[in-house]
Amino acid sequence: MQKRIFIGWIIFIGLLLIFPVFVKAPYILHIAIMIFIYTTLGVSWNILSGFAGQISLGQSVFLGVGGYTTAILLVKFGINPWIGMFAGITASIALSWIIGVPCFRLQGRYFAIATMAVVQIVYLVIARWEFAGGARGIYYPLRNWGIKAFTFREKMPYYFIAMAMMLIAMGVIYYIEYSHIGYYLKTIRENTDAAAAMGINVPKYKMIAMMFSAFLAAISGTLYGQYLLFIDPDTMFLLSVPIMLVTIIGGIGSVFGPLIGAGVLIPVQEIARIYLSGSGRAIDQLLYGSLIVIVVIFQPRGIMGMVDLLIYKFKKRKKDSRGKIKSNVLLM
Q1: Terminal C-alpha separation, the chain
Q2: Which residues neighbour 44 within 8 Å (Cβ) at sequence distance 6 or greater?
Q3: Lowest mean pLDDT across 29-38, 67-76, 214-223, 321-330
Q4: Are 260 and 102 contacting, i.e. CB atoms less than 8 angstroms apart?
Q5: Is the dihedral of CA 163, 167, 173, 177 positive or negative?
Q6: Within 10 Å of residue 28's Cβ, how many Cβ atoms?
Q7: Distance between CA 297 and CA 302 in Å, rounded?
Q8: How many CB atoms lie within 10 A of CB 298?
Q9: 291-327 pLDDT, tens per residue?
């Protein structure tokens, strides 16, 4: 089984590496980059909400803090964005601790409401903070190009950087899934009191989940800002719902759920926006919303839930057929 998983990962990474060799259209690469970014964001939310069961409505606060830290350090102080990215990660992790200490005293919907309040507070602070560009946002300077400046004239370098960040995120969640941290988080998700009775340090592991979540969201914030070359409060702090939807549609609590969800939703969103938004009737939004409603109603576990169900039925049918063959042989 481990060998099959390893081979699967090698094939998956290999396909991602050769994809831009055959597909060089800028718009297709743009969609791929957005899929990678949203997958990383979906993984960040999945660790906290899918594994630990702490449903957050404010995941974009870590995205925004990571992106704004990098942008402010670059534009105001001339600090390299790669250094700014690590500063943004540090700021987001520190913020996750500040948020986690009081908010983890709350449960269920109260925790969700508290995280939503936090992102609204930070949004209003940034929107009124003139040093950070206020509601106008910050435009990135185009003085230098290349890997050192984290700014490129073409999309292909962004593709590989976004892919690398996504693979880091998937490696993190894969490690959590099969480590003691993952088992502890799932136990906390199912029954917090039972987890505490078993000797699991519940506040500690909730905080670990939030810190991992903040780390991955922060690197996405830096990349998102560098890719768009523009950052404002709406762009960075109003994405909590899309981040959630990517994971919910793909399969909450699964390793590949965010990737599958992003792979479905981002192309649908882009295609609908191009071909249907011009009518002025918001048909693209209706189509996008209808897809989400259909998946949530008919398969709450998302697309991965459908896949798991099909695999289970296939194995059961195969086992039953073997049993029938065996019984027929015995009768003969």
Answers
A1: 36
A2: 59, 62, 169, 212, 213, 214, 215, 216, 217, 220, 243
A3: 321-330
A4: no
A5: positive
A6: 15
A7: 10
A8: 9
A9: 767 776 776 677 777 777 777 677 777 666 666 665 5
Contact 269, 261 (CB under 8 A): no
Cβ–Cβ under 8 Å, residues 52 and 189: yes
Dig out the tokens for 27 from the structure.
């718009």
Amino acid, single-letter form, for residue 195: A
Tokens of 117: 């309040």
Per-residue pLDDT for 81 more than 90? yes
Residues 6+ apart with CB under 8 A from 257: 42, 46, 50, 247, 250, 251, 302, 303, 304
* pTM of the model as a whole: 0.88
The DSSP line for 209-267 is HHHHHHHHHHHHHHHHHHHHTEE-HHHHHS-HHHHHHHHHHH-TTSSSHHHHHHHHHHH
- The sign one gets for the Cα dihedral 304, 309, 314, 318 is positive
Tens of pLDDT, residue by residue over 173-185, are 988 988 899 899 9
**Structural domain boundaries of the chain?**
28-237
How many Cα atoms are found within 13 Å in the side-chain-facing hemisphere of 132?
21
Which amino acid, residue 23?
Answer: V
Axis crossing angle, helix 202-228 with helix 60-77, rounded to the nearest 10: 50
Residue 307, token pair as written in the block: 């896949």
Our separate counts of H helices and E strands in the chain read 14, 2
* Whole-number pLDDT of residue 214: 94
| DSSP H or E stretch at residue 139 | strand 138-139
Task: Give the CA distances from residue 32 to residues 161, 244, 266, 271, in Å, rounded to whole numbers and listed in that order.
Answer: 12, 19, 9, 13
